[in-house]
DNA sequence: CGGCATCCACTTAGATACTG
DNA sequence: CAGTATCTAAGTGGATGCCG
């Protein structure tokens, strides 16, 4: 692990740990990334759509995950004036900030998967 | 979330999700980052040392965390021929691969913490 | 010293059914 | 359609004690 750069080195270790903790808590669980990647790929989606594309999730869990993501400003929730009501979810501009994290995780995860496999 | 780059775009979505999953599983839990950052900062450490610097952890959990990290090649475990035995843990070269992940998480986490706080 | 065994508490996830 | 209610199953974490 080499010397960290930019803002990271201006911040004490304790606080960096807080940042790590926050980020990990936000993305914890089996479904958050899947939901975000789906919303990113397909644009606006309704509850039902997400229930179908997120294979294996139950409505209760999906509901909780969506709430978490909304609380953390990663997605928006829009209730449409139709009958019966439809609700539309979309990814936010703010969620773009998470792209470096996701990229780094994918890169590391794929490399690591190969490394462990051939061990 | 903008277009992904390099190897990430050569890999299908399903597989990218696997990479994400692997990486998240490796780093899940409250202690892994703390242990890695400590080992990185202090070099070789014994079980007892880690038990002290990792505030709040119990021996059972520390033991499990260390095993996980060793299985994933992030640390080495060396038994010394002393009486009574001492065991020394150290971070591996391979763990350097995780640095971009950690940096990205810290950056995002710190920014996000501020964003949420002032909401 | 460096753990593992045991037990318990708590949180989370899943299945299913139901409602506005 | 978009969830909530309820119940149960499972995983995880902490406390404690013991042993080589």
What descriptors fit this protein?
homodimer, 119 residues, mainly alpha, 3 strands, DNA-binding
Summarize the structure in words:
The structure is a homodimer of 119-residue chains. With 119 residues, the first copy, chain A, is mostly helical. Chain A has one domain: Winged helix-like DNA-binding domain superfamily/Winged helix DNA-binding domain (Arc Repressor Mutant, subunit A). In chain A, 58% of the residues lie in helices and 12% in strands. Chain A has 6 helices and 3 strands; from the N terminus they run H-H-H-E-H-H-E-E-H. Chain A has a 3-stranded antiparallel β-sheet. In chain A, strand 2 and strand 3 form a beta hairpin. The radius of gyration of chain A is 17 Å and the shape is globular. The two termini of chain A are 22 Å apart. The N terminus of chain A is likely disordered. Chains A and B meet through helix 1, helix 2, helix 3 and helix 6 of A and helix 1, helix 2, helix 3 and helix 6 of B. Chain B binds a DNA duplex (20 and 20 nucleotides) through helix 4 and helix 5.
Give the amount of beta strand of chain A, in percent: 5-15%
Q: How helix-rich are the residues of chain A, as a percent range?
A: 55-70%
Rg over CA atoms of chain A? 17 Å
Number of strands of chain A: 3
Number of helices of chain A: 6
Structural class of chain A: mainly alpha
At the fourth level of CATH, the homologous superfamily of chain A is: Winged helix-like DNA-binding domain superfamily/Winged helix DNA-binding domain
Taking the sheet with the most strands of chain A, its summary is:
3 strands, antiparallel
Order of helices and strands of chain A: HHHEHHEEH
Multimerization status: homodimer
Strands of the biggest beta sheet of chain A: in what spatial order? 1-3-2
Return the CATH architecture of chain A.
Answer: Orthogonal Bundle
CATH topology (fold) name of chain A: Arc Repressor Mutant, subunit A
Note the overall shape of chain A.
globular
The first-level CATH class of chain A is given as Mainly Alpha
Mean pLDDT of chain A: 90
Distance between the termini of chain A: 22 Å
Q: Largest interface here, residues on each chain? A: A-B, 55 and 55 residues
The total domain count of chain A is 1
* Unreliable runs of chain A: 1-6
């Amino acid at each position: 692990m080499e010397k960290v750069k930019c803002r990271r080195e201006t911040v004490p270790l304790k606080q960096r740990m807080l940042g790590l903790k926050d980020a990990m808590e936000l993305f914890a669980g089996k479904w958050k990334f899947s939901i975000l990647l789906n919303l990113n790929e397909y644009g606006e989606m309704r509850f039902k759509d997400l229930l179908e594309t997120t294979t294996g999730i139950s409505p209760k869990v999906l509901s909780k995950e969506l709430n978490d993501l909304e609380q953390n400003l990663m997605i928006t929730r829009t209730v449409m004036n139709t009958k019966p009501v439809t609700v539309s979810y979309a990814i936010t501009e703010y969620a773009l900030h998470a792209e470096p994290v996701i990229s780094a995780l994918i890169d590391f995860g794929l490399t690591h998967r190969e490394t462990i496999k051939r061990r």
